[in-house]
Amino acid sequence: MISDKMNKAINDQINRELYSAYLYLSMAAHAANINLKGFENWLKVQAMEEMTHANRFYEYVNDQNGKVTLAAIDAPPANFSSPADIMKKTLDHEKFVTKNIHNLVTLAKKENDYATDTHLQWFVTEQIEEEKTASEILQMVEMAGKSGGALLMLDHQLAKRKFGGEAKN
To answer: What region holds the Ferritin-like diiron domain (predicted)?
Structure first.
């Protein structure tokens, strides 16, 4: 059984995962608005992946006889200055999520909650991939600079990403 403190912390993380999905959908909408359909696709898949993360936490709380309590989701920003801005904000956000996952691991260890600690290790590993991918795409966008052709090639590449439940970047 999960402690009340751990239960609340995971409920907070569920909210953060849902916000992440909301943020990436907002970014996708902006990308669609500037006709970067590949970026839109990549970000929509990212949003779906964040929903699966929220569900993974949701199921875990229920499996541990805890109580899932959902909270309001803050509105994400709707305007971005460029594809580089989107990817910089994506990387910053993933770093924020990583910090929060690490805080959950610290709490689980403090609470001697071995089950939660084990469950969280998947997220620790996932965040390595999330930050790496966001960083790589940001670097490519920055290398493209003002070259419309290079940006369109990257956009074409990002259009190939598919969602597979736990999509790999």
So the answer is: 1-145
